Amino acid sequence: MQLSIVIPLLNEEKSIPELYQWLVKVLEANQFSFEVIFINDGSQDQSGKILDALGSQDSRVRVIHFQKNYGKSQALHAGFLKTKGEVVITMDADLQDSPEEIPELYSLINQEGYDLVSGWKKRRYDNVLTKNIPSKLFNAAARKISGLSLHDFNCGLKAYKSEVVKNIEVYGEMHRYIPLLAKNQGFSHIGEKVVKHQARKYGSTKFGAERFIFGFLDLITIWFFSKFGKRPMHLFGSMGVLMFLIGFMTAFIIGASKLYKLWNNIPDILVTQNPWFYIALSVMIIGSLFFLAGFLGELILRTQKNQKRYKISKTVN
Ligand code: UDP
Ligand code: MG
Please, what's the b/e burial string for 137-152 (b: 16 or more CB within 10 A of its CB; e: otherwise)? Predict the structure, then answer.
């Protein structure tokens, strides 16, 4: 199979039929063999029923129903596991991303040999204050930190080589920086393509102004993950060792001068009257705590690997 289209959605009942028809029209016109995987991320409206109906009349439509709303990253993760196509395309369900882009995205992966091609909504039709400006800031910072020269990390429309989606772990809110996850897994041929973007036709956005805060926090996470995500001990351990050494050296100097003065019968203050004693003590304690944080980080990383992060209630096709 050539193409797997992965579409996470939450309460998009109005858009689904139109999106399905548009997709099928474009994909059939280009004679692709394909599947469309919808992940119903706990919708409260008729989305689930509409998807089941589509699945029963068209076996190329495959549906994953989540038990409840787990978020876009979890939905993508579940979709990625199910894909059979050589090239995987992700897109939003709200008709903001255009299926017309798919043939070109496909050939960028298949012919030009890209591992990942990210869409770039160069002209964007979203709220300027809550979306466009924070998103520009987020992307600028993400570029700096990741070393990837992408304009639009968070674009829903992306194309991947199958290997890429099978090898990255998208969870939490990490759908915002999938290109970085791919890069961290060693997929370095990452490109971007300007894509058409439209204003939302039906329903409302699921992400609001909270992006101001989340975007910034995500950024710190990006930095931490790309540098120390796999080895928290490297960060905390080295900080811990450094702190501990400073404390230990200070204590050593205090002890040595004490001995020297004792030896030569020079009168000296009590150790507890020396402020440096307390500094040495606290620095050593903080150092040990850093170490502990490193160990806990490693421990969490290990246990999380085997954990299911979402519960699927039903699948179709
Ligand atoms: N979405 C989802 N789970 C969520 C939130 C959103 O699957 O918890 C889907 C949503 O239905 C849409 C896509 O993710 O298909 C992008 O969401 P939205 O259009 O609200 O984001 P925006 O375009 O405003 O950034
Ligand atoms: Mg949208």
Answer: ebbebbeebbebebbb
76 lines ligand 1 (CB under 6 A): no
What DSSP letter does each residue of 205-250 carry, written as one string?
-S--TTHHHHHHHHHHHHHHHHHHSS-HHHHHHHHHHHHHHHHHHH
Residue nearest to atom 7 of ligand 1 (CA): 9
Q: What is the pLDDT of residue 262?
A: 93
Domain membership of residue 316 (yes or no) is no
- On whether both 282 and 151 belong to a single domain, the answer is no
Question: Is the shortest distance between the CB of 93 and ligand 1 below 6 Å?
Answer: yes
In angstroms and rounded to an integer, the radius of gyration of the C-alpha atoms of the chain is 26
Owning domain of residue 285: 232-303
pTM of the model: 0.80
41 lines ligand 1 (CB under 6 A): yes
Q: Is the pLDDT of residue 215 over 70?
A: no
Residue nearest atom 22 in ligand 1 by C-alpha distance: 205
In a domain, 308, yes or no: no
- Residue 13 tokens read as 């009942």
Beta bridge partners, 34, equal 3
Residues 140 and 288 grouped into a single domain:
no
Identify which of 13, 50, 72, 135 to mutate to test ligand 1's pocket (most ligand atoms within 8 A of the CB): 72
Same domain, 169 and 142: yes
The pLDDT value given to residue 222: 67
| Last residue of one domain, picked from the residues 228, 256, 277 | 228
Q: What confidence category does residue 309 fall into, taking pLDDT thresholds of 50, 70 and 90?
A: low
Per the prediction, the chain carries an average pLDDT of 91
**Could you tell me the distance, in angstroms and rounded to a whole number, from the CA of residue 98 to the centre of ligand 1?**
15
Q: Which of 62-71, 104-113, 168-177, 217-226 has the lowest mean pLDDT?
A: 217-226
What number does the ligand 1 atom closest to the CA of 8 have? 7
> How far is the centre of ligand 1, averaged over its atoms, from the C-alpha of 203 (Å)?
11
Question: Could you report the per-residue pLDDT of 31-70, keeping only the tens digit for each?
Answer: 999 999 999 999 999 999 999 999 999 999 999 999 999 9
Could you give the number of structural domains in the chain? 2
